Amino acid sequence: MGGLLFTGGTIVTADGSFEADVLIEDEKIVAVGTDIAANGTETVDASGKLIMPGFIDAHTHMAMPFGGTVTSDDWATGTAAAAAGGTTMIIDFALQEEGGTLAGAVETWTEKAKDKALIDYGFHVAITDLRDDVKTELPSLAAQGVASVKIFMAYKGTPLYTEDDDLFETLQLSKEAGVLVLVHAENGDVIAKLQEQALVNGNTAPRFHALTRPPEVEAEATGRAIRLAEVAGAPILVVHVSCAPALEEIHRAHERGQTVYAETCPQYFAFSYDDLAREGFEGAKYVCSPPLRDESNRPALWNGLKVGDLQIFGSDHCSFNYRGQKEMGADDFTLIPNGLPGAEERAMALWTLGVREGRISENQFVAALSTNQARIYGAYPRKGALVPRRGRGHRVVGPGALDHGDGEQPPWQRRLHPVRGDDVRRWSRGGVRAGYLVYKDGEILGEHGSGRFVERNFTATRGLEAKV
Ligand code: DUC
Ligand code: ZN
Ligand code: ZN
After folding, report:
1. Which ligand is nearest to the CA of 339?
2. 247-282: burial string, b at 16+ Cβ within 10 Å, e else
3. Which domains does the chain have, with CATH numbers?
4. Which atom of ligand 1 is nearest to the CA of 287?
5. For the range 403-409, what are the long-range contacts, defined as Cβ-Cβ under 8 Å and sequence gap of 24 or more?
6. How many CB atoms lie within 10 A of CB 7?
7. Which listed ligand is nearest to 340 at the C-alpha?
8. DSSP 274-300
9. Nearest atom in ligand 1 to 64's CA
10. What's the DSSP call for residue 308?
11. Distance of CA 332 to the CA centre of its chain
């Protein structure tokens, strides 16, 4: 395969920024330096552009059955959206089916992904039924390169919901197996009770989604999960942290020296409870869990990203159409499928609201979108770094231009997104995966099915307890 030489760009890594050329050959970065000779290699003029490691989005839900329907992006449209946002690898949630095994979940998700993925991918398995045979099976995940599992403390009354005893045992078993446990931390019992009371009182509008999931139920579950991990002596990762009280629990754990990783997402910075409370049924577009919060939470979340209490920024891409899907909850907010897209908008949102506003540095931006994701999820340095490497293994690089145009809505953008038309869209000019361009100037150039499964593990690069 021919190479690619990027010239004249500024390399931005998690540690610093510097001027350099980048040469990619045979799917690997072979040189980063100045005045690299082209020798006939296809050259991309990256003057005035920033070159960053390909972004990793470790929080997506493609073609996932949820809330009585299936997310509207499959692995073709969803990975195209991610590629357009500079992302070159996703880690998606493979759901264990009722009565099914963990291997079955990986198999089902592999079928969904393999002919459609445009970029590289991995899986976390969402454990929904910790039977005895599943406990025995869990350690085999690490050997398959699936180094993380997820537990839902919310969604009582659905197969996702998990009680504390199973969460605790999952933490114990995962620690032994070298698997990281992710938690969706909201108190499912309290939410179910508040929802029941809201409906009895005729409170059916979308905004009651937030009013029945107040910040305290997220904070309580976050603190509980962290303490259970402490008892188990296991690391833990809290996904989609949305509010200051939950972040306080994480900060306290860090002060105690506990290994707690935490993610936040673009929707908690771009939108607020006011969007959920829009006129009529418009608020349904903004229903996700944890819900959108009051803007007063934002300074704490920015500070969390800045000081490292929040190490990663994932999209929680979980798209549903307004017509026919969000509308399922027209008379009852509890039936509105939970989720917003964001795989494409994630980096733009963090750049526009974070770096451009001086809240975080461009290096912290790269850390949250790429390097920390690779480190925490066991893919570093094959992913998340811009360094020359010997030997086999493919490398990624995603050059992004800071100018962003308007343009027509590209075909993969048919999903509903509240920021459509906003000035944060379409900023990434090109994305490279396995040494060739998958996306350039609004066009998808890669082939569906060319994305590869990336095995992740913690033994090669660091212990689970290592600091990011
Ligand atoms: N939250 C969402 O908004 N959608 C999918 C699952 C989740 O936890
Ligand atoms: Zn979740
Ligand atoms: Zn999610």
Report:
1. 1
2. bbbbbebbeeebbbbbbbbbbbbbbbbebbbbeebe
3. 4-52+385-402+426-444 (2.30.40.10), 55-344 (3.20.20.140)
4. 3
5. 403/427, 404/348, 405/442, 407/442
6. 17
7. 1
8. HHHT-TTTGGGGG--SSPP--GGGHHH
9. 5
10. T
11. 29
Q: Whole-model pTM?
A: 0.91
Lining residues, ligand 1, CB within 6 Å:
61, 66, 184, 288-289, 316, 318, 338-339
Whole-number Å distance between alpha carbons of 5 and 303 = 37
Query: In percent, how much of the chain has pLDDT > 70?
Result: 86
Tokens of 92: 């998606």
**Ligand 1 atom closest to 339 (CA):** 3
Instruction: Identify whether the C-beta of residue 340 lies closer than 8 Å to the C-beta of residue 420.
Output: no
Distance 425 CA to ligand 1 centre (A): 23
Decide if 373 contacts 86 (C-beta within 8 A): no
User: Which protein residue's CA is at the shortest distance from atom 8 of ligand 1?
Assistant: 289
Kindly give the distance from the C-alpha atom of residue 65 to the centroid of ligand 2, in angstroms, as a whole number: 14
Taking CA atoms only, the protein residue closest to ligand 1 atom 4 is 339
Nearest to 334 by CA among 71, 117, 85, 67: 67
Residue 258 structure tokens: 């506990």
The pLDDT value recorded for residue 441 is 67
For the CA of 66, the nearest atom of ligand 1: 5
Neighbours of ion ligand 2 (CB under 5 A): 184
pLDDT in tens, 300-348: 999 999 999 999 999 999 999 999 999 999 999 999 999 999 999 899 8
**Positive/negative CA dihedral, 70, 72, 77, 80:** negative
Distance CA 219, CA 246 (A): 4
For the CA of 239, the closest atom of ligand 1 is 8
Kindly report, residue by residue over 386-445, the tens digit of the pLDDT: 877 644 333 333 333 222 233 333 333 333 343 333 333 334 445 555 445 666 667 777
Q: What share of the chain is helix, strand, coil (3-state, %, to 5)?
A: 35, 20, 45
Ligand 1 mean position, distance from CA 389 (Å): 37
Chain segment 115-152, per-residue pLDDT in tens: 999 999 999 999 999 999 999 999 999 999 999 999 99
For residue 448, how many other CB atoms are within 10 A of its CB?
Answer: 15
Q: How far is the CA of 444 from the centre of ligand 1 (A)?
A: 27
Sign, CA torsion 36/39/45/51: negative
